[in-house]
């Protein structure tokens, strides 16, 4: 009887642990992502780009750091972040525009199957804590997981 209980306990533990990555996984965003759609709205200026089979850029997300690089451009950024499953809070430690180094921006971010939908910012502050929302365009991006 005790032996049967141990088998049931082990089987239950295996099932629970195997489903650790199932469902709404808080770490589903970690990996390499290709940007396939980009829209930027800043005051009266709107820029929109769609991938025609070649990604617009690449984003890398580790559990604590992010980086992105635009294709055929020196524009890129890197830094640290936290993600609560809805909002990503980024601290820019490298950026092509030095005045934004140290800035903290928060964006809505949702993982949908093999895509990340990224929009905002919903909050933007400089390295010294000043509100800089009026200096940052509103972005909408779609990224697909690199296979």
Task: Give a structural overview.
By secondary structure, the chain is mainly β. The chain has a single domain, classed as Uncharacterised protein PF14869 family, DUF4488 (Lipocalin, Beta Barrel). It is about 10% helix and about 50% strand. The protein has one helix at about 1-20; strands at about 30-40, 45-50, 55-60, 65-70, 75-85, 85-95, 105-110, 115-125, 140-145. It has an eight-stranded antiparallel barrel. The model is unreliable at about 1-25 (pLDDT under 50). This is Lipocalin-like domain-containing protein. It comes from Lentiprolixibacter aurantiacus.
Write the layout of secondary structure elements.
Layout (H helix, E strand, L loop, with lengths): L1 H17 L12 E12 L2 E6 L6 E5 L3 E6 L5 E8 L3 E9 L8 E9 L2 E11 L12 E8 L2
Antiparallel strand pairs: 1-2, 1-3, 1-9, 3-4, 4-5, 5-6, 6-7, 7-8, 8-9
Features:
147 residues, mainly beta, Lipocalin, eight-stranded antiparallel β-barrel, 1 helix, disordered N terminus, Lipocalin-like domain-containing protein
């Amino acid at each position: 009887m005790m032996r049967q209980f141990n088998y049931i306990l082990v089987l239950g533990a295996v099932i629970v642990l195997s489903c650790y990555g199932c469902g709404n996984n808080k770490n589903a965003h970690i990996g390499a992502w290709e940007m396939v759609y980009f829209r930027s709205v800043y005051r009266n200026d709107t820029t929109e780009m769609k991938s025609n089979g070649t990604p617009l850029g690449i984003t890398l997300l580790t559990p604590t750091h992010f980086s992105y690089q635009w294709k055929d451009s020196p524009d890129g950024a890197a830094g640290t972040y936290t993600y609560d499953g809805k909002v990503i809070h980024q601290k820019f430690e490298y950026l092509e525009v030095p005045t934004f180094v140290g800035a903290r921006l928060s964006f809505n971010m949702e993982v949908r199957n093999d895509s990340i939908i990224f929009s905002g910012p919903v909050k933007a502050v400089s390295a010294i804590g000043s509100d800089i929302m009026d200096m940052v365009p509103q972005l909408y991006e779609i990224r697909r997981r690199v296979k």
